[in-house]
Amino acid sequence: MNLNLKIKRLISLIRKTSLARLLFTEIMVGLIVNITLLLLFIYLTHNVLEKEVFYYDKTISSYIYTFRTPLLTTIMYAITLITSIPQGIILSLIIIIILYKKHKKESLIFLLALIISCIFNYLMKITFKLPRPDIDPLQKLNDFTYPSGHAMNNLILYGLLAFYAFHFTKNKSFSIVVGFIAAFWVGLIGLSRIYLGVHYPSDVLGGYLAGFWWLITVLLIDKTISFSKEAKRFYEKT
Questions:
Q1: Ranked by mean pLDDT, which of 25-29, 92-96, 187-191 comes out on top?
Q2: Which of 3, 129, 207, 213 could disulfide-link to 152, CB 3.0 to 4.6 Å?
Q3: What global pTM score does this model have?
Q4: What are the φ/ψ torsions at residue 146 (nearest 5 degrees)?
């Protein structure tokens, strides 16, 4: 009986050690990706502020404008409308309510991640104070342009959705499909902002980089807390 207990305890310790190592590896990889994204965002922001990317912004935007048609314009208006802040708040509240029933921690993470993302985006816009494009806009907006709030906040929203799809189901096929749909949809959102002439391509890219950086940061914080708890449990058992 004692031997069986020792074997079970040993197996339990091995499993916890493996989990701790996995979490540690994920944290290290996440840190590398996180730092890389931050450096890329800083580099892009410098080039945007120095107007070193304006030629590319103008060239890419002008090329995208050549595809404008009444039907496509209606579609792009619809995409940008249903992914704006009011609709995003409604969708987020629905997700939070669904998560809260069985996953209170994840619902709190989801809520805080989106709120802080909106605050970050606003602070960056009023710090950089870059005007909206004036090449050939289909919409007139009076606030600042860099980085794109649509790109940043929706990347956080749908990125977390894709992550939780895998986290809760562990179904790789399903997770890949959800991830692909989320990435495609976020890509369309960014394209719609350029198409409508309310953002430069660099605004959208900056929003993606900032959003991806914040998404990785949120997941890193969660992983680090989980790692600390697993390490504490491991040492308490030994």
A1: 187-191
A2: 207
A3: 0.85
A4: -115, 130
